[in-house]
Write a structure and sequence with these properties.
- With 118 residues, this protein is an alpha+beta fold.
- The chain has a single domain, classed as predicted glycosyltransferase like domains (Thrombin, subunit H).
- It is built from one helix and seven strands, in the order E-E-E-E-E-E-E-H.
- Strand 5 and strand 6 form a beta hairpin.
- 30% of the residues are buried.
Length: 118
Amino acid sequence: MSPLPSGPANSGPNKRAKGRLRCELLTCELGIVRDVSASGMRIDCGKLCPAQSGQTIPLTLRAGPTSLAAIVRVAWVSRSGQDGCQIGVEFIETSPAFTRSLRELTLCCMEQRSAMRA
């Protein structure tokens, strides 16, 4: 079973083309990745909003010692008062090799989370 949902999940509150996986241990330069799917992710950027909608930026996703370089396009930006900023990004690179590496990275997060709970 794959840790990254790949089937359609664009009904109701989940408007992504692919299902999402919560992944609190995954980070990048912009902040903490709150959830990830095969098509993109939601990032909690803290108090500053370092990107604008439509912008294309390079990121390095990290889970412990494991990392993955990605090019993303900012799909939306949400500012919420004192809580700061969240952004939604879509992956530009969606090759089978990238998707496989992303799955491995999310597996690393899941293993770390399981180890923390044990």
